[in-house]
Structures are given as C-alpha cells and as structure tokens.
Design brief:
It is a single chain. The strands form three sheets. A seven-stranded antiparallel sheet has the order 11-17-16-15-14-13-12, covered by helices on one side. The chain is built from five helices and 17 strands. The protein folds into two domains: about 120 residues, 3-layer Sandwich (Rieske Iron-sulfur Protein); about 190 residues, Alpha-Beta Complex (Naphthalene 1,2-dioxygenase Alpha Subunit, Chain A, domain 1), CATH 3.90.380.10. About 15% of the residues lie in helices and about 30% in strands.
Length: about 325
C-alpha cells in the first residue's frame, strides 16, 4: 500500500500547517501528492484550493490576497474559498463566467492548525481528550517533514516491543525486554489500546520532564488510534501527572509525511517548563525516526491476514491493517501499490 494511491484517504481531514503561518500571506503545501494553496479569507478563516490558476496554470501560492480571495500572480484573476473566480481585470464583466473556477477543498481550523480534506469528508476532525479541559495546558512540539509512510509511524506508536530497544537511551529498560500485555477495544473509526509499561527514567527525565525523583516507574498508557493516521497517547504516572501526546501525520507523497505533534499536560509552566517537555520528547522522536526512516514506504497489508503468526505486541498494528482493509472494502476501493 502506497499512501497517496488510496483514494479514500482524500476523504479524511489532515492537519497541514499552523494557522499562524498564514498571517503574512498564502502558502503552498503538498497533500496526497497534490499541490494546494492555503490562505486566510475575509473572515480570517483558512481556505484551501488547488495551487493552479485555471487560466494559464500559474502557481497561486506565489500570488497575494484581495478581499479574502487568492489572486493569481500572472494576470490578477481572483478566486474565493469555493474556487469561484470573483474578479478578472481583463474584462468589464461584474460577474465572471461560472466556468472560470478552480477546485476548492474542505478546510477548517482546529487546535491551532489548518486541516484539509481533498474530497468530501467521511468523518469530522477528531475531538482530542483534554482539549477543552481548563486543568490542562497545550504544548506545541513539532511541525516537520518525516521520511516514512504514515502507517509506519502509527503502528510504531502502539508497538510496545520496540520501547526497550529503540528508546534504550531515554526510557526503555533493556533489563526487562518482554513487552507488557495490551488490551485493545475497537470502535467505528479506530481503537483504544491500554497497557502498563515499566520504564527507566533517564536523561534527567525525572527532573526535567516529569518532576519526580523515582528512577524507575510504571506508565499507565491509554493510546487511541483515529483512522487513518492520528493517535493520542495518554500516559498517567504514579504522581498523577498526565502527559497526553497527540501525533498526526499528513501524507505529502508516498515517501514523506508532515508531522504535527502537541501535548496536553495537567501541570503548569512553573512545575515543568515547556522547553524541558519538548527537549525530552525531541529525543524520543529522533530515536523513532532513526529507525522508521529506514523502512519501506510500500506497506503490505497482507500481515493482517496472518495474525496468528505474530507476536502479541504486533496485535495493534495487525488490527490497524485489518481495519484499513475493511475501510477500502466498504468504500469500494481495492488496495493499490
């Protein structure tokens, strides 16, 4: 499975850019292999459309704004968020012909990011746990390109067997390599996976990121998968601290994704600084990427048909693949390379 070849993924929302990045004008982005342009309309709401003018195919992202519309840099044609041409200076017509239009996309702002669906969405943007809880703060962590398939990152997020090896320098425990039991509860658009993971607090994590003195502890972890490429991992420590990581990936092409990650925490800046939280999670993400970026982008879903031959720690990833196969079948799409 190559991620951009699955048409049904076009019907999901993906976070593509911090909305603050649009304050100084339109920006380009590539989603599912398609070049799009993003901008803020006259109500300061994000809009998205194909990054090609219908006149002579110039890149609209090199243009500017006029009354909330994107203006082509070539001949000055302006298009609204629905893709309709609202003005072209070469004509005296007050209302340009309806055939003068470009493709507009579904576009929303949520959690400080611009979310885009290329086709009619089959579900809304997920509502994340703690997002409207006043006892939790939000720490924005990472917005960067990663060189692996989105499903690889999703599977890795639920793979408890890799922790003690990939993360041996941050919180893994090589003295206890046997992965814990995982309890999985499926739902319509994904699943929840609960596990209790013994960890070894290293790199001053216990002081800088956790505000605790114990060298070893147990993380109670409830991870949620939102189809196709979003997860929220809610980690509860014995101190009562909750560290809830939201990780989203937007497919750029078959080999790369845009990573968006932020964290909800039930503490305050004076307890643990945002800088310390980001620094520790930076180490963890770098450890994962060092391995994930070596993997093949063409992910076979055949493993979903051989579940009996895999380790128990593979079960979340196997279920993920089975549910994607069911999604393809439901919407009449065959798995394509």
């Amino acid at each position: 499975m190559l991620q951009t070849k699955q048409k049904i993924f076009r019907s999901f929302y993906f976070p593509v850019m911090p909305v603050a990045d649009l304050q100084d004008g339109p920006k380009p982005f590539k989603l599912m292999g398609e070049n799009i342009v993003l901008w803020l309309d006259d109500e300061q709401k994000p809009a998205a459309a194909i990054d090609r003018c219908c006149h002579r195919t110039a890149r609209l992202s090199k243009g500017e704004l006029r009354n909330g519309c994107i203006v082509c840099p070539y001949h000055g044609w302006a298009f609204n968020r629905d893709g309709k041409c609202t003005w072209f200076p070469q004509s005296e017509l007050e209302d340009p012909p309806k055939v003068y239009k470009i493709k507009g996309y579904h576009c929303e702002e949520r959690y400080g990011y611009v979310w885009v669906a290329l086709d009619t969405p089959i579900r809304d943007i997920p509502k994340f746990r703690y997002s409207d809880n006043p006892d939790f703060r939000k720490v924005d962590e990472f917005y960067e390109v990663i060189h692996c398939a989105a499903i690889r990152l999703m599977e890795n997020s639920f793979d408890v067997a890799h922790v003690n090896f990939v993360h041996k320098n941050t919180f893994g425990d090589l003295d206890n390599p046997i992965p814990p039991k995982v309890t999985i509860t499926p739902n319509e658009w994904g699943f929840e996976a609960y596990m209790e993971i013994p960890v070894h607090n290293k790199l001053n994590q216990k002081v800088q990121a956790l505000n605790m003195d114990d060298e070893r502890t147990v993380r109670k972890q409830l991870s949620e998968w939102f189809m196709p490429f979003i997860r929220q991992t809610n980690i509860t420590y014995p101190t009562g601290l909750i560290h809830s990581i939201v990780t989203c990936t937007a497919p750029i092409d078959d080999d790369t994704c845009q990573l968006v990650q932020f964290v909800y925490r039930n503490d305050r800046e004076e307890d643990v600084s945002a800088k310390s939280i980001i620094a520790f999670d930076r180490n963890v993400v770098d450890e994962d990427m060092d391995v994930l970026e070596t993997t093949d982008s063409n992910v076979s879903l055949d493993l979903a048909k051989k579940v009996e031959n895999h380790m128990l720690s593979d079960q979340p990833g196997i279920l993920m693949r089975k549910m994607l196969l069911e999604l393809f079948d439901k919407y009449g799409e065959q798995e394509m390379c």
